[in-house]
Backbone:
DNA sequence: GCATTAACCACAG
DNA sequence: CTGTGGTTAATGC
């Protein structure tokens, strides 16, 4: 744990950027920075929560234990808030967050966060914007996950990591095959098969968790056609 | 009917 | 945990 001086923070969220110096000081006094290693649980479904979390660096998976098995709802990279829906909506967390790469976050007291929303319209507006973006993304993901075939979903996942997360054609998958299955609603076996198919077809180069996209256009076509 | 898709199972590395 | 092969149920043509 470490004290965070919010006013000097170089990675302020767009909401925090509009806070007054006095509000920034109040935030700093009610905010704790914590480092998480890959695999550490940041907060857990079913546990009580009274914090909003701001991810300053790293990568996090949001996941829920469903009636049958685990499901990864989404993967979020810094900078981003976590837990606004669950902390505002419910006393108990409705989902879990786990670091899938080394991650640093700030825990912000919910009452201070609420105070900013009540008192600073600009702050509230920025938060609404982020929540709206997230909701639209999850609508899109819901449709894609439901309607696309497995190859399309797998192509989506690869493009997501390449474009959305790493901004590189080559990257190390931060998930196991099983987790990747949980992410795109399929089985570990199907993931293995499809990655191997893509590799044989020359679409990607595959070596364990290391992936390099060789034929991005074809991958996009597969994604588009489902 | 027949072909395709994708899950489930089993087993090996 | 990962890769593969066989089996099987569901769905489409």
Residues:
């Amino acid at each position: 744990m470490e004290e965070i001086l919010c006013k000097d923070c170089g990675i302020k969220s767009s909401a925090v950027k509009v806070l007054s110096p006095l509000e920034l000081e109040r935030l700093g006094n009610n905010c704790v920075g914590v480092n998480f290693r890959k695999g550490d649980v940041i907060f857990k479904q079913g546990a009580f929560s009274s914090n909003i979390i701001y991810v300053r660096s790293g990568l996090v998976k949001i996941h829920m234990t469903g009636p049958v098995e685990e499901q990864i709802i989404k993967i979020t990279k810094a900078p981003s808030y976590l837990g606004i829906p669950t902390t505002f909506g419910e006393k108990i967390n409705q989902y879990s967050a786990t670091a899938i790469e080394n991650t640093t976050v700030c825990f912000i007291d919910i009452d201070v966060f609420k105070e900013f929303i009540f008192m600073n319209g600009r702050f509230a507006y920025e938060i609404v914007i982020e929540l709206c973006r997230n909701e639209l993304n999850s609508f899109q993901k819901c449709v894609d996950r439901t309607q696309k075939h497995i190859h399309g979903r797998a192509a989506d996942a690869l493009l997501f990591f390449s474009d959305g997360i790493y901004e590189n054609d080559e990257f190390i998958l931060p998930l196991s095959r099983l987790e990747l299955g949980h992410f795109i609603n399929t089985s570990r076996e199907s993931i293995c098969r499809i990655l191997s198919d893509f590799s044989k077809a020359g679409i990607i180069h595959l070596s364990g968790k290391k992936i390099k996209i060789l034929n991005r256009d074809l991958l996009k076509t597969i994604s588009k056609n489902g």
Observations:
- The first strand of chain A starts at residue 2 and ends at 3.
- Residues 176-178, 188-189, 192-193, 196, 208 of chain A lie near DNA strand C (CB under 10 Å from a C1').
